[in-house]
Amino acid sequence: MTFAVVNGSAFGVHLLLACAADALMARRVWGEATVGMLALLLQGSLLVWTAVRYDRHADERRASQGQVGC
């Protein structure tokens, strides 16, 4: 549940900013990199980080229940 809430919220904020603050998202911050591109990279990093945490907790739960498998 937390996985979906965190990543859904990040996506919602990114979508709102892309629609409402397009000038902010298009602002260049370093070379050709824009605020929007950096925000998207942060969102992707958040997705990977929460997925790893979710998988780790699922593995711990499976191990504590005595289940072994793929």
Automatic annotation (TrEMBL):
Keyword field: Membrane, Transmembrane, Transmembrane helix
Domain of life of the source: Bacteria
Transmembrane segments: 33-52
Record's protein name: Uncharacterized protein
Protein source organism: Streptomyces chengmaiensis
